[in-house]
């Protein structure tokens, strides 16, 4: 073979500084790129053999990754198709690149290394992010081929000479620069391989590891064990998403989930994705058991392209509301070096997004119809997904409204139609509007719930993080229906009926009662109103108006434009039951005694809401002791 020297055909001498500058933040992906190239070469070799175009023995096609700390090298070796010298010149020396000026102009603000690599086909050249010199030793599978050696020191100059490889395939040898000697650390390389290559379709070996195996028995017949050195194969070449669902058991799905998320509880159920038209997609999505703070659960879906890990930031591929799911998605229609701009613009990605939404909705509807009781038992975990989906995706809502459940304080579950039928005869107000009462804290609001139940009103439990938004969504979708928290006002004003209670007090007496309570409470944020209620109702009830409470709840959740309401002081309504016998006693008592009784009744109302604290609580206890 004739020795050859030349210049890499890129029309500029600035390519390597540019690569190092723009790709530095993601420099670990060099290993993904080079191992992926080795996988491609190996799969091509297997296909040629399967087609009868290679008749010799394939032999062991395991890809080898090795490190030499003394020489400061990393080597990736495969037994794939290899290259001839001419192929090296064609595929390595000619970068699909039109000039540094255009590159710098277009990507001067770039932050995404994947975008740069994918756009210009620089996968192999990502090696120069970490290496001062790269050497290729390769031998083509073609009969009579000669080995070739290519060396480049990070400039545009290369050297192509006869190689030393005796078996088909390719070695890529990286001579690491001083800034990247962290990659000589075996644990660091293992970490990168585990991240990107854990499910690549060709076995990848990274050195050896110790394993324990049986070594006969001892004198008592108990098995003995010895430590042996075995190949450290880092990947599972046939993960479950590459198999048909009929080949898999529930235990297979659970074991794979435990492999992905070893510290998580077992999932509730899963969905196996498998579609080949109008795009290619496989994967398994799991419904995890959620904690109430669902923000920390995101970024648990892993995106692959032909079993090569790409990213766990899948916002544009997976609908927003399903970001809470766990699992894997694999699509060859998504390039390995994918960029955010690609995901946002690609038509296949949009189709995948819609497909996943439909598939999840169909699965939930199937579960609901197949086993209603089991579905109800899972509702506390899956309800958050369903409500989030209903809020954020109209297509999901159209399917989801058939299996959205409302659960009440008696742990009963109803579909939207079922609940409408349950309460319409009792909870329709004088204007024909249906009122759904709810609580977000059944223990704290128990007195209000009990009062509602005495009137045959039903109270829903709405205590998930997004129920404030979900109630508003339902109000917009359900005809003439409103949601009111059970402590948002007195019951007669939450559901206004034609036959309202009549006052037993005169106007002068109502005015006097209001003055007494205002003096006893002495708080400008507590607005006293004297109401006509049943004498069986509490003497004093403290409420916050529904609209104000919602605004404050949304402000706490970070709702856009709601910060103003979050900064306002809490303002409450104090409803004094003018028909209660205690009010007559207060009116007839001496002024000081009446004020003391009014304060006691007010403090009891605060106590029932968990709002009586500090010095006010101490004063209440002392006053109660004196009254005994």
TrEMBL record:
Top-level taxon of the source organism: Bacteria
Pfam families: HATPase_c_3, HSP90
SMART domains hit by this protein: HATPase_c
Alphabetic keyword roster: ATP-binding, Chaperone, Nucleotide-binding
InterPro entries the record matches: HATPase_C_sf (IPR036890), HATPase_dom (IPR003594), Heat_shock_protein_90_CS (IPR019805), HSP90_C (IPR037196), Hsp90_fam (IPR001404), Hsp90_N (IPR020575), Ribosomal_Su5_D2-typ_SF (IPR020568)
Assigned protein family: Belongs to the heat shock protein 90 family.
The protein, known as: Molecular chaperone HtpG
UniProt organism field: Flaviaesturariibacter amylovorans
């Amino acid at each position: 073979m004739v020795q050859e020297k030349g210049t890499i055909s890129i029309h500029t001498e600035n390519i390597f500084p540019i690569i190092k500058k723009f790709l530095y933040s993601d420099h670990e992906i060099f290993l993904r790129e080079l191992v992926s190239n080795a996988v491609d070469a190996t799969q091509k070799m297997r296909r040629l053999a399967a087609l009868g175009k290679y008749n010799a023995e394939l032999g062991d096609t395991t890809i080898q990754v090795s490190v030499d700390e003394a020489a400061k090298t990393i080597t990736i070796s495969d037994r794939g198709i290899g290259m001839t010298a001419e192929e090296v010149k064609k595929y390595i020396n000619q970068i699909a690149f039109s000039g540094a000026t255009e590159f710098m102009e277009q990507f001067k603000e770039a932050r995404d290394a994947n975008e740069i690599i994918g756009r210009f086909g620089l996968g192999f050249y990502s090696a120069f992010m970490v290496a001062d010199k790269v050497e290729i030793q390769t031998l083509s599978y073609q009969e009579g081929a000669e080995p070739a050696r290519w060396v480049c020191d990070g400039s545009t100059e290369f050297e192509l000479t006869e190689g030393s490889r005796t078996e088909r395939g390719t070695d890529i040898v990286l001579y690491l620069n001083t800034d990247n000697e962290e990659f000589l650390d075996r644990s660091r390389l293992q970490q990168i391989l585990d991240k990107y290559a854990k499910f690549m379709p060709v076995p990848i070996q990274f050195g050896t590891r110790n394993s324990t195996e049986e070594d006969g028995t001892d004198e008592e017949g108990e098995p003995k064990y010895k430590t042996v050195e075995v190949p450290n194969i880092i990947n599972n070449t046939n993960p479950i998403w590459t198999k048909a669902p009929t080949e898999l058991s529930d235990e297979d799905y659970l074991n794979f989930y435990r492999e992905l998320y070893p510290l998580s509880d077992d999932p509730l159920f899963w969905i196996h994705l498998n579609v080949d038209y109008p795009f290619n997609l496989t994967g398994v999505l799991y419904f995890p058991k959620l904690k109430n703070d669902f923000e920390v659960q995101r970024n648990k879906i892993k995106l692959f392209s032909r079993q090569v890990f790409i990213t766990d930031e899948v916002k544009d591929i997976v609908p927003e509301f399903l970001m809470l799911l766990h699992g894997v998605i694999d699509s060859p229609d998504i390039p390995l070096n994918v960029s955010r701009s690609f995901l946002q613009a690609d038509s296949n990605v949009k189709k995948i997004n819609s497909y996943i939404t439909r598939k999840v909705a169909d699965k939930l509807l199937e579960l609901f119809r197949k086993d209603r009781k089991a579905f109800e038992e899972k509702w506390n975990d899956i309800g958050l997904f369903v409500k989030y989906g209903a809020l954020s995706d109209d297509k999901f809502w159209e399917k989801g409204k058939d299996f959205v459940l409302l659960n009440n304080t008696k742990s009963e579950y109803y579909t939207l139609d079922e609940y409408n039928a349950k309460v319409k005869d009792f909870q329709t107000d004088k204007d024909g509007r249906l009122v759904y009462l709810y609580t977000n804290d059944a223990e704290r609001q128990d007195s209000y719930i009990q009062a509602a139940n005495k009137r045959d009103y039903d109270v829903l439990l709405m205590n998930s993080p997004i129920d404030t938004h979900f109630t508003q969504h339902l109000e917009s979708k359900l005809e003439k229906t409103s949601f009111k928290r059970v402590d948002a006002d007195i019951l007669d004003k939450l559901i206004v009926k034609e036959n309202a209670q009549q006052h037993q007090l005169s106007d002068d007496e109502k005015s006097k009662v209001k003055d007494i309570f205002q003096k006893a409470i002495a708080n400008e944020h507590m607005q006293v109103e004297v109401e006509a209620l049943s004498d069986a109702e509490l003497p004093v009830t403290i409420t916050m108006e529904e609209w104000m409470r919602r605004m404050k709840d949304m402000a706490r959740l970070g709702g856009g434009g709601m910060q103003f309401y979050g900064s306002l002081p809490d303002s409450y309504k104090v409803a004094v039951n003018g028909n209660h016998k205690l009010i007559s006693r207060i009116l007839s008592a001496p002024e000081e005694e009446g004020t003391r009784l009014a304060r006691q009744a007010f403090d009891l109302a605060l106590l029932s809401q968990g709002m009586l604290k500090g010095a006010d609580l101490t004063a209440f206890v002392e006053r109660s002791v004196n009254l005994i």
